[in-house]
Write a structure and sequence with these properties.
8-stranded parallel barrel, 8 strands, alpha/beta, homohexamer, 47% helix, TIM Barrel
Chain lengths: 260, 260, 260, 260, 260, 260
């Protein structure tokens, strides 16, 4: 079965630089797949992407060696299994707040006896290879989002679920749940405290920790905190950032380094 | 009829900062429409965009006051008229090399007796307003691309076509036609010479000159040369530029100003 | 944050005339958005519309000031949150039969501590404005459908759920649940009795009541009954009604007022 | 080969009541196919419809016995042949102003030796039947639009083209070409004069005449003038007409016959 | 209401040869609808098909008399009801392992008092006919998948659910749940034993049994075992099988009977 | 620049086994790309495929090493250039009957000074590589269809056009033009005679000859006649062939080798 870059990099102690896709188009997905990311996550939760578009995007990513992941809208077996069948090499599941929720999630990503995933990896096998049945349970990633105070309280129970490969922190939801409001790259000490706890717990449970960042600077800081999987914004924000800077530069009559 | 920003800015002696769309999606189009551009051109020639996607993109742009333009694939009446009917407020037509080609192009954009456009602005009237029939011929822009040595030789004949509002320079095709190859932001003196000639001729014919640029710096330089309509890259390249810089920064462990 | 027309009209004691969209197309959505409705509801339950089409439709509606609502297929957090993130300014949720169901629904539409909505209003913030985080909980509408005898029995418990803004009656399902079968604009006294009870309960709970109608005449009657939010058919039935009348008129050789 | 309703009705001296489709959706197409029209024309010229959407629409129409026609964007062999291959049972071609243009058009719709259509009716044969090769040239309709003063001047030359089955009048373009401006259902005597001339010429050449109408009343009048093929508006305008009437009625608190 | 072929054939003691659709396209669906199948099932579980594509596919199938079925991704009321509203004449629901799951499933497919399906068969009524309200509960099929050892253990409880019309066996999931791994057309005695048990139980409960097969030979064998509803592969595998055989034949320079 | 398999195989004296795509879907395209073909041609002429779908299909093919070709609807620069920009590695152009037509075609596929292709290979460069500007003119294939008696008469003039890489025979159109009607795999001696002439002329002009076949057997025969590029049917016919055979086998109760 085709190797999973994320698994391999993490196992080697490296850091995964992950890109984020919220535009329902194979065109942006393919362009991002050529931008140097180790993996790309199609965001079906907050991105403007539904399943059918995700199939085209998975194909577009498959023109390269970048590992495709999918964040599903919710902890629901139908879309988790459909995404894996379409060729996702890992699932990020939002709002896992308890062990039971984590078990339901991980079970949906594994064939029996490890879970209850239903067989039929129509595109997954084209992408992964003919030994998919044998290797899928150990190749595909199950990543739970830890994004509330409740989840932090239950972090050991959640991480003890067999088959869980990693956790992913959503700073905005964590901020909201703790009363600080949403926002990229928070510096609020209580949030940072939680981020540390999560990274340490992950290490303890021998799984990896990931986090959504709003800048390269913050991603670098999070890597220092023990996060081995960092995302920087999404393709729309990267585009808008460069676009706004370019317009501003021309209107001001002064080029500047944060615009092409 | 809804005003045409490009026409208004140019008439006031200002400069239009134009964005460029090559992704077949209303999602990227709407995000770009919020990035500060005065106008946005949907590129149906080299962009990966066909007519049906352009309709969604025109709708997405219409959620703002940004003026929507369309570059058609070729000088062909069917697609020119369809694009105007869908609500484009101007057409950029590639490869206009002679007066005859320019007349055919401009004629397709105007109702009789100025041209031979067929009536039926199904979405154009929704966007433009109920007085479309009366105002369309003087509100919508007809912009011819000057992008070969032959076109430069015929520049006065081309620009003398009644109803032409502006010209748009394609530096890469101009470079190829002169034996220098394609490329953004050329500095080759013979090309710059041609760019000057075109801007001067435009001024002489009381139409505006536009040009496709690869950077804010070059756009500023072109404005100094007399160009009143400048484009900086397209949304995919802006996205890819920021993405590559972000990945590089994180992999190097060093933030830098050309990444968020 | 951009104002919510429905909320404003209802608060001022007025009546909302709401349009209904079941065609998966931004083209019909934009045409309907120019037909005079105060709000438009995209019907993802019985309409032939899925999430991806709804995004284009929301963009099309956003070219005007008409307030966009979405009826979700079922009381499921994934699609409720996706629809809000895409820019819906209110959710109509089918088949709310108990307080628990209503709490689950309303919770999915509110950020903590009022609910458990996850942060990431990618298009919602483009549409609503930069103060979305602060204002969303009080701007977006949560509307529960009351459409069974069971729901009528539980109407006070349902309406007591904090954060619920309104209820919406589905006469056909109500008719089926009471043994009368489906149908527009019922006159069966027991149904009318229930409609009255619901309107009165809504007034008691200081929320608004809405209802799906099959004709202008019935909508007017329902307004008299206390309903402040009335829908007349959907765009497909309006089209089919006018089309059939036009064909009939021409085939009969006699124009008549119910055809153009 | 499946019979062509339009051909059959016209041959029997009857009148065809034709519907018009400008929404790129199989959903509206199917609803219109159940509204009583004898035939439905997909408008790829001024409608917001491109080829790919037309395929879904042709399938939707094929769920009924309504005869599917396509108006192409322009007199161009590529799209004429693609539309026939997709199962259109007739082509309406805009802006035929001369015999030569008419010959080019009709030739594109016929296999050699009558024309130069290329073989490959991939869906046409599924829809039409296995004897397509033998019957297509005499079953499919070639309909030229007569919509300028120039075309009226050349009407006998145009109608003399062998294989032409009918003509279709575009009143708005005719109005523009004669200096009266666009508009449905004109009463200007010079236009009516031309409409008469065209109907008479059609009778003389043993082909049928059709016309685009804005109301049932006008269609009835045109039938009296000798037109055997009449269209009343398009699906979007029918929908918008009924929608606006419904909103107005409810807002006025008074039902009226031109709203459901 | 339009008759249900599957119901009719099964009632007459015949066998249904069912085709399987996993490509999200009306084009393949229409071609398959002309290939001789009695019914066609759109696979929204493992096929690469989402709801919006399924609507086009249902329309394409409706150009013929082939009965359309849908396999939903999971036992979830939203998608079950949406599929029926779109015109499916039966639902196959995966992974029914208990009586409770079966009741939830069947309830979602029936109007009260038999179940809790919500009214609004927008396309279902176009396809089925005006007496849909009266006939739907007895015309549409509810088919539960029996595909785990657990389900076999509970087979009588599951089949005792009122309103269940048939069961459908997934050999691969059954194989996995019993420790034999996935695979078409298994010969493992313990699996065959289970297949027999299921067919016998179905007979006992007066419902029909169906099974997914990988070849005509196996389908014939299953019919002998008492299965009245057999599927042979899906359209993609049929295509790939013929394609690979054709390539191999040409590369070998030797035609052979398993390639055209 | 990425190598062109077709060019390489032909240059080495081998034979290209080409697959044919008429379904507008990346799903079928990807499945066909895994079936062993050397190249795949997206048929935008008679296939039910438009430009936007072709982009997804080109991406799907690009997940493998199969070389992507496009047959354009007609000899028109807009779509020829758009297809190359989208990543096609060769264009098959229908109905080339004269030297002038061939020159217009080949010119549209080459950058100056060899032709008049416009620069902007947005996806072509992603697929081909950064040296696209330098290598495109010699890497991409220009293939003219020879499919009428007139074209056979002009075969030497057509083949003498500089830059033409190959010709492709359409047996059905050739049959029609010679009075024999359409049909796969003709045995009519006058047609075979023409096929021979074309293959010999191609050899004389040092370009390759290709032909569309209905069976492996015929393809093998054509290779013997000197054709180095053979297509066997299209994906829809391969699917339908296997599907019909499977249904027939099950209904007859007898498996047979031409069904799986």
């Amino acid at each position: 079965m085709r190797e999973n870059n994320v698994k391999k990099i993490v196992a080697a102690g490296g850091n995964v630089v992950n890109g984020w896709l919220g535009v329902p188009s194979g065109v942006t997905a393919e362009a991002m797949a050529h931008a140097g990311w180790d993996s790309l996550c199609i965001d079906m939760q907050h991105g403007l992407v539904d399943y059918q578009a995700s199939v085209s995007m998975l194909q577009a990513i498959s023109t390269t060696n970048v590992t495709p992941l999918v964040r599903v809208p919710w902890n629901e077996p139908g879309i988790i299994m459909k995404s894996l069948d379409a060729g996702a090499y890992g699932i990020i599941c939002p709002m896992i707040n308890s062990k039971e929720e984590c078990e339901a999630f991980v079970g949906a990503t594994r064939y029996a006896p490890q879970g209850y995933r239903s067989w039929g990896p129509v595109r997954g096998m084209i992408y992964g290879g003919p030994d998919y049945a044998k290797e899928a349970n150990t190749t595909l990633l199950s990543i739970a989002m830890i994004e509330t105070a409740e989840a932090v309280a239950n972090v050991d129970a959640i991480m003890s679920v067999k088959g869980l490969d990693g956790v992913y922190v959503g700073p905005s939801d964590m901020g909201i749940s703790m009363g600080f409001g949403p926002g990229f790259d928070p510096t609020e000490p209580k949030l940072i405290e939680n981020f540390k706890k999560i990274a340490e717990a992950a290490k303890r449970h021998k799984i990896f920790a990931g986090i959504h960042c709003g800048s390269a600077a913050y991603a670098i800081k999070m890597i220092e905190l023990g996060y081995q999987f960092v995302t920087i914004l999404g393709e729309t924000r990267l585009m808008a950032w460069a676009a706004k800077n370019a317009v501003t530069a021309v209107k001001a009559g002064k080029p500047n380094p944060n615009a092409p």
